[in-house]
Amino acid sequence: xxxxxxxxxxxxxxxxxxxxxxxxxxxxxxxxxxxxxxxxxxxxxxxxxxxxxxxxxxxxxxxxxxxxxxxxxxxxxxxxxxxxxxxxxxxxxxxxxxxxxxxxxxxxxxxxxxxxxxxxxxxxxxxxxxxxxxxxxxxxxxxxxxxxxxxxxxxxxxxxxxxxxxxxxxxxxxxxxxxxxxxxxxxxxxxxxxxxxxx
Length: 199
Known about the structure:
- The protein has one domain.
- The chain has helices spanning about 1-60, 70-95, 100-120, 120-150, 155-195.
- By secondary structure, it is mainly alpha-helical.
- The mean pLDDT is about 80.
- It is elongated, with a radius of gyration of 24 Å.
- Helix 2 (about 70-95) runs antiparallel to helix 3 (about 100-120).
- Helices cover about 90% and strands about 0% of the residues.
């Protein structure tokens, strides 16, 4: 009888530790999501500033080319839509959160699924890829034209190279993050199947 009681006590302690870890994991994931939303909000704010600067330069006649404005406006619209959608999904998930181990696991799965969708959703990836590719192509063509005319811009060229390196690093980070999210979701599905009989 004593052995059975000890076995149950060990099992209970194990489940208690698991539940605390789930709560901590969920809180960390919520902070991570809030951080990314903050970064995106800063990006949208910078986009608004860039549009305002471009409009003032065009109005003053100091900018001869008009191509940056449509790209900036489309990027701003895409960033604003992604931010709005992300905040709406987070608010709906918070409203559905149930403070039980199963509820925390389900909430954490929702967080991971939303983040995974953000990395692989074609509604954001395709327009973003087109806008980035168009901007890079136009900038490279303009820099090549200026260099051919004997007016090189080493600072702008260096900045362009730095941006391309950042873009490559971001893609590598995204690929690794997607792999991690898929593994974590598989683990969470197993954990949810263990906890579901407790309802």
